[in-house]
Amino acid sequence: MITLSHYLALAGLLFVVGLFGALAKRNAVAVLMGIELMLNAVNINLVAFNRFLNPGEVTGQVFALFVIVVAAAEVAVGLAIVINLYRRRLATDVEEADWLKW
Predict the structure, then answer these.
(1) Least C-beta-crowded within 10 Å: which of 14, 39, 48, 90?
(2) Cβ atoms of residues 93 and 27 within 8 Å
(3) How far apart are CA 31 and CA 76, in angstroms?
(4) In angstroms, how far is the first alpha carbon of the chain from the final one?
(5) pLDDT tier, 92 (very low <50, low <70, confident <90, very high otherwise)
(6) Is there a contact between 61 and 49 (Cβ–Cβ < 8 Å)?
(7) Model's pTM, two decimal places?
(8) Is 84 helix (H, G, I), strand (E, B) or coil?
(9) What's the rounded Cα separation, in Å, for the pair 39 and 22?
(10) Which among 23, 44, 28, 17 has a CA at the least distance from the CA of 86?
(11) What digits encode the pLDDT tens for the residues 60-72?
(12) Could you give the CA distance from residue 17 to residue 23 in angstroms, rounded to a whole number?
C-alpha cells in the first residue's frame, strides 16, 4: 500500500533533482526545466496531502491547478527572455546574461 510518506519521498527526490538542475546548469532552458520539476514536486505534495487529510474535498487539486497555471505563465515569460537573449548574444548561457548588473 502506498502511504503519504511514499508521496513525500517522491516529491522530495523530484524537488532535489529540480533544485540541482536549477542551480548547477548554465543553460537557461535547463534552469527553466529545473524550476518546472520543483513546481511538480509541490503539486505532488498538494495532491497527496489532500488525498490523505481531506479525501472528500478537492482543495489540493485546485491549488495544484493554480501552480500549473503559474508555471505555464512562468515558462512563457522565461522562454521569451531566453529567445531574446539568444537573439542578442547567440547563446543561452545564464553567465552571459550580465548586462543588467551594475
Answers:
(1) 90
(2) yes
(3) 14
(4) 55
(5) confident
(6) no
(7) 0.84
(8) helix
(9) 12
(10) 28
(11) 899 999 999 999 9
(12) 10
Average model confidence (pLDDT) across the chain: 90
pLDDT of residue 85: 84
Residue indicated by cell numbers 543553460: 27
What's the half-sphere exposure (Cβ side, CA atoms, 13 Å) at 21?
18
Q: Report whether 27 contacts 11 (CB < 8 A).
A: no
**CA 19 – CA 38 distance, rounded (Å):** 7
DSSP bridge pairs for 93: 27
Is residue 4 within a helix (H) or strand (E), and if so which, with residue range? helix 4-24
Q: If you write DSSP's letter for every residue of 19-49 in order, what string do you get?
A: HHHHHH--BHHHHHHHHHHHHHHHHHHHHHH
Query: How confident is the model over 16-41, as pLDDT tens digits?
Result: 999 999 999 988 889 999 999 999 99
